[in-house]
Amino acid sequence: xxxxxxxxxxxxxxxEAACRVLARDGxxxxxxxxxxxxxxxxxxxVRYTFxxxxxxxxxxxxxxxxxxxxxxxxxxxxxxxVDYAHAVLVELLPLDEERRIELDVxxxxxxxxxxxxxxxxxxxxxxxxxxxxxxxxxRAVGVASADMEYEACRLHALVDxxxxxxxxxxxxxxxxxxxxxxxxxxAALAGx
Length: 192
Hints:
This protein is mainly α. The chain contains nine helices and no strands.
């Protein structure tokens, strides 16, 4: 018999299981049965927690950026300037299993959001949150307000492109080049 869980713990457990299923098996495998098996819960518990397939997708997508935001919020408070920028940007790259899963989920659900009108607002929120995070990094290194929108878009594109390259590397492959590229970009911005 499964142990008793509070509602928040059950939502997190089911969402994390959905993320693992998505990352490992793809969007087509995201079913109540597969998520329940991954979470070690009865299918009825999953249906009770997330009554629709759409609600599982929406919460999984939200969980991805919430994980990133939590890691950024947990950074040491004394960081500033390029040190802060480095610490934040490293959190956005899929450098460990947790972040690889997050990116795989984001890619699968982001693609689905292009045609899923229920999922699209959740995807748009993640994109807006990412833009905001890029803006925080840019303010930390002294980018002028007049250049902020352009530079935030450019940094976001750079991070997304690097993340796509890194996530496709074999496990254990060198990723130092991606971190170095981000550090160089930030240093150039800070030099303006």
